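pasting for the record
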Amino acid sequence: MSSNAVSKTITLPRTGDRMPAIAYGTWTVWLSKPGEIYSGVKAALDAGYRHIDTAWVYDTEDEIGQAIADKIEEGAIKREDLFITTKIWDNYHSRERVKLNVERSLARLQTTYVDMVLVHWPTSFKDGDDNFPKDENGKIIYSTHDIVEDIWRGMEDCVDAGLTRNIGLSNFNSQQIQRIVDAARIPPTNLQIEINPNFTNDKLVEFAQSKNIVVSSYAPLGAPGRPWRDSTDPCAIEDPVIINIAKSKGKSPAQVIIRWHLQRGLAVCVKSVNPERIRSNIDVFDFELSEEEMASIKGLNRNFRLYLQDITDAKSAFLPTLRFPLISKLKRKVESGGGVRGSTEIKLIHTHYNVQEKAWLRMKGVCSCPSGWTQTPISGLCLTFQPAPKSWSEAQKECVSRGGHLAIIKTAADNSDVISFRLSQTQQGDPVWLGMHIHGGSWSWTDGSQVKWADWDSGSAPSTQDPDLCGVLTYKNVLAWTYINCVMPLAFICQFTAAKSGAAPPALITGTWRKIAVDERCVGTEVVANLTASSLIDCVRQCQTINTCNVVSFTHTQKTCDYTATSADAPQLSDARGWETWVLDKH
């Protein structure tokens, strides 16, 4: 066997369990449409994946559990064929609550045990059911649970209770790992950390392996489609070194990078909801990288960490995974490790809007635009323009042909120009839709049907300088977007109009709305949901959890997420937590 050959599984210390080296990652429902994780897991199982990676905070365990249950019922797999990894969250760090978190995950996953439980982060939040407990000033409330006597003893309890066979860590640094190894009755067998060609994390990998801990990589491709990507960030998947090796092997750049991880003796967590990419990402066992090729890829290391820690708060080892940062740069040398920024350049993340920084809601479809695509000036999104539908019926057909997604964009204030377009898929395989601003009014299709827009008072016409801001939200059956300049004291509004496939163009509903009980949410003829978020980022994250098949209008402000839904088929909220329900009192 060649010295560069790799096994499809890795033997775990202590139990001897065989962990599949490539895991299907499921981070995170905030960036996915309802049902995407379910479909992705089924596609992954069909493609041969037998390791599924998730976490309590991803909020994907329900869909994963149902997908696995359905495949078992079909007779395609057995539970014992699978290796399931989950992670406990920061508000479950007391000894008793560690076990509670695992039990709740098992209920979601519809299984009596998982194969691996990891401590997601070393930092502890206040105990309770709120994953992100905050004080009156919107600051995270921390706790002082000890990583050994509270967290790790709770993890050992889970093994004793048969809830999991293996336990490990994620995002821990060498000092934290050593402390647990020294005190553990049941030692950690797995460490999951960020690793990719631009952040090889060599010292921490070597340290963990010296402690007989198997190392797994998350974000192995460098998360090229991440929303907070900056135009100056390195992008290994489009680096000429990777591309040239891929061409020589007849493989994709992603496959080369995944193979590079495996030949380092690492496990890999890869995520996509695109069936073709799902299959491609596991098709890496029929070629090898030479020692020279391995070294050239290692030479791409820039100590560039993607998932940043806000060092302004010494107690924090976590920053929300979905964030659209306004970036200031601070030069500082720190140790390369889990809970601390491991780069010589630290980017401080601000959760408020700074007018001076032109980086709000950056969305990057790919590292650079392919030939024939147009790149937006602010966020660098890649667009391809399609002919405008000439009628509502034609628009319906186009919507259906694109799997329910259609963006009809007005580009002139007098409604004289209508175009439709879609974006290229991201490196993760997810289509991203972009909306551009519309200055009120309405437009007519050639068959006489109309889409009407509510008027607004912004103080001035929408800005033409930031066309990407509304593009963060992705919904089914979109007919049109509006955008209002998101700079105080103007209004903060992103609106769209949508219809069910086959329905007539809807009109915005106006009138006086009154609050009703949550359990009445599907009784009224029209319903609007309102969320008061603690920050813009929370608002964007929460807005994306709504199933919007019946949405008529949507408003996203700095503090609220509102939508109005048609009465047809009653609006479906995929996550009612934190939402208030309102009904129309009079038109």
